[in-house]
Design brief:
Length: 132
Protein backbone atom coordinates (compact mmCIF):
# COMPACT_ATOMS: atom_id res chain seq x y z
CA UNK A 1 0.00 0.00 0.00
CA UNK A 2 1.09 3.51 -0.71
CA UNK A 3 1.60 5.87 2.18
CA UNK A 4 -0.63 8.89 2.59
CA UNK A 5 1.17 11.87 0.98
CA UNK A 6 0.35 14.19 3.88
CA UNK A 7 1.79 11.75 6.43
CA UNK A 8 4.91 11.31 4.29
CA UNK A 9 5.30 15.09 4.09
CA UNK A 10 4.79 15.42 7.85
CA UNK A 11 7.42 12.76 8.57
CA UNK A 12 9.87 14.43 6.18
CA UNK A 13 9.13 17.78 7.78
CA UNK A 14 9.91 16.40 11.26
CA UNK A 15 13.23 15.06 9.99
CA UNK A 16 14.10 18.47 8.53
CA UNK A 17 13.22 20.19 11.80
CA UNK A 18 15.40 17.71 13.70
CA UNK A 19 18.29 18.29 11.26
CA UNK A 20 17.91 22.06 11.62
CA UNK A 21 18.11 21.76 15.42
CA UNK A 22 20.68 19.01 15.87
CA UNK A 23 22.77 19.22 12.66
CA UNK A 24 25.21 21.84 13.95
CA UNK A 25 25.82 20.34 17.41
CA UNK A 26 26.20 16.82 16.01
CA UNK A 27 28.62 18.07 13.32
CA UNK A 28 30.71 19.76 16.02
CA UNK A 29 30.69 16.63 18.19
CA UNK A 30 31.77 14.45 15.26
CA UNK A 31 34.42 17.05 14.39
CA UNK A 32 35.90 16.84 17.88
CA UNK A 33 35.72 13.03 17.93
CA UNK A 34 37.30 12.72 14.47
CA UNK A 35 40.07 15.30 14.73
CA UNK A 36 41.73 14.20 17.96
CA UNK A 37 42.48 10.63 16.87
CA UNK A 38 43.28 11.84 13.34
CA UNK A 39 46.10 14.20 14.44
CA UNK A 40 48.71 11.48 15.16
CA UNK A 41 47.78 9.65 11.96
CA UNK A 42 47.98 12.77 9.80
CA UNK A 43 51.26 13.81 11.39
CA UNK A 44 52.81 10.35 11.03
CA UNK A 45 52.00 10.43 7.31
CA UNK A 46 53.02 14.09 7.04
CA UNK A 47 49.58 14.96 5.66
CA UNK A 48 48.12 17.64 7.96
CA UNK A 49 45.69 18.63 5.19
CA UNK A 50 43.54 15.66 6.31
CA UNK A 51 42.57 17.71 9.35
CA UNK A 52 41.37 20.53 7.12
CA UNK A 53 39.31 18.11 5.01
CA UNK A 54 37.50 16.87 8.13
CA UNK A 55 36.84 20.45 9.22
CA UNK A 56 35.59 21.47 5.78
CA UNK A 57 33.29 18.46 5.47
CA UNK A 58 31.71 18.91 8.87
CA UNK A 59 31.43 22.66 8.35
CA UNK A 60 29.35 21.84 5.28
CA UNK A 61 27.11 19.59 7.39
CA UNK A 62 26.61 22.41 9.90
CA UNK A 63 26.00 24.93 7.10
CA UNK A 64 23.43 22.54 5.68
CA UNK A 65 21.53 22.71 8.94
CA UNK A 66 21.64 26.52 8.76
CA UNK A 67 20.17 26.42 5.25
CA UNK A 68 17.54 23.90 6.36
CA UNK A 69 16.51 26.15 9.25
CA UNK A 70 16.22 29.15 6.93
CA UNK A 71 14.12 27.15 4.48
CA UNK A 72 11.87 26.00 7.31
CA UNK A 73 11.41 29.60 8.41
CA UNK A 74 10.47 30.68 4.90
CA UNK A 75 8.48 27.57 3.93
CA UNK A 76 4.91 26.52 4.34
CA UNK A 77 3.72 24.98 7.61
CA UNK A 78 3.47 21.25 8.07
CA UNK A 79 0.05 19.62 7.64
CA UNK A 80 -0.09 18.86 11.36
CA UNK A 81 0.77 22.45 12.33
CA UNK A 82 -2.48 22.73 14.25
CA UNK A 83 -1.29 19.99 16.61
CA UNK A 84 2.09 21.57 17.20
CA UNK A 85 0.78 25.09 17.45
CA UNK A 86 0.95 27.93 14.97
CA UNK A 87 4.40 29.12 16.01
CA UNK A 88 5.86 25.81 17.17
CA UNK A 89 7.71 24.91 13.99
CA UNK A 90 8.84 28.50 13.52
CA UNK A 91 10.23 28.62 17.05
CA UNK A 92 12.03 25.32 16.56
CA UNK A 93 13.45 26.57 13.26
CA UNK A 94 14.70 29.74 14.98
CA UNK A 95 16.38 27.68 17.71
CA UNK A 96 17.92 25.48 15.04
CA UNK A 97 19.12 28.49 13.09
CA UNK A 98 20.74 30.07 16.14
CA UNK A 99 22.43 26.88 17.33
CA UNK A 100 23.60 25.91 13.85
CA UNK A 101 25.16 29.32 13.26
CA UNK A 102 26.86 29.06 16.63
CA UNK A 103 28.33 25.65 15.85
CA UNK A 104 29.48 26.72 12.37
CA UNK A 105 31.42 29.49 14.11
CA UNK A 106 32.78 27.06 16.72
CA UNK A 107 33.99 24.64 14.03
CA UNK A 108 35.57 27.58 12.21
CA UNK A 109 37.26 28.73 15.40
CA UNK A 110 38.72 25.26 15.86
CA UNK A 111 40.25 25.57 12.39
CA UNK A 112 42.19 28.72 13.27
CA UNK A 113 44.94 27.10 15.40
CA UNK A 114 45.59 24.52 12.68
CA UNK A 115 45.96 27.33 10.13
CA UNK A 116 48.11 29.60 12.30
CA UNK A 117 50.57 26.99 13.53
CA UNK A 118 51.74 23.56 12.55
CA UNK A 119 49.12 21.05 13.79
CA UNK A 120 51.89 18.45 14.15
CA UNK A 121 53.94 20.59 16.52
CA UNK A 122 54.64 18.52 19.62
CA UNK A 123 53.00 15.37 18.28
CA UNK A 124 55.36 12.39 18.66
CA UNK A 125 55.99 10.61 15.39
CA UNK A 126 57.71 7.31 14.73
CA UNK A 127 60.87 9.15 13.68
CA UNK A 128 60.95 11.06 16.96
CA UNK A 129 60.25 7.94 19.01
CA UNK A 130 63.24 6.07 17.50
CA UNK A 131 65.71 8.84 18.35
CA UNK A 132 64.96 8.83 22.08
Amino acid sequence: MLADPSSTFAARHRVLVAYAIFGGPVAWFVHICARYPLVPLACARNEPWLLHVVTLGLSCVALGSVVTAVLLLRGRPAPDAAEVGAGGVRALALVGLASSILFVLVIGAELLPALLQDPCLGVPTQEGAGSR
